[in-house]
Design goal:
Helix content: 55-70%
Oligomer: single chain
Strand content: under 5%
Structural class: mainly alpha
Length: 144
């Protein structure tokens, strides 16, 4: 069993996807759910991003809380989901979000991203980290 990360200062430490996911689950406010779709989609999207960043590739940022959150905050979630769907290990984790994009339910996508931001508001990627992750995404997302 994976133990949640005990201290936010570890947000820039390379982690396994399961550790990132455990930290997210540990950070969920008890008894305050925005609804099953948003909570499940947020967990799946967050895990898919962690899984993606954990896969070695040239120039790909490491799997850290900062990098995953910077990707969540990238302004084009539909492009990020398209990128994740090109990674076989991430496809099943992005199906809900991809379906919402297909249906044109962008407000639900934004609700999922906002929920992740609220849950992990104590983890703040530095501007340099956000710029690095966003530059990587701009260079690799489909239709960028």
């Amino acid at each position: 069993m994976t133990v949640p990360i005990a201290h936010p200062s570890l947000s820039s430490t390379a982690l396994l996807p399961a550790q990132v996911h455990a930290y997210f689950l540990h950070s969920l406010p008890p008894g305050e759910s925005p609804g099953p779709f948003i909570e499940v989609a947020a967990q799946a999207y967050f895990y898919a991003l962690a899984l993606y960043f954990s896969r070695p590739a040239a120039g790909r940022p490491a799997c850290t809380l900062e990098n995953v959150l910077a990707a969540v905050r990238y302004g084009e979630p539909e492009q990020v989901i398209g990128l994740l769907q090109r990674e076989p290990a991430c496809v099943s984790w992005t199906l809900q979000m991809a379906e919402e994009i297909t249906r044109g339910a962008y407000w639900q996508i934004q609700a999922v991203l906002h929920f992740i931001d609220i849950v992990l508001n104590h983890v703040q990627p530095t501007q340099a980290v956000e710029q690095q992750v966003h530059a990587y995404l701009r260079a690799h997302v489909p239709n960028a």
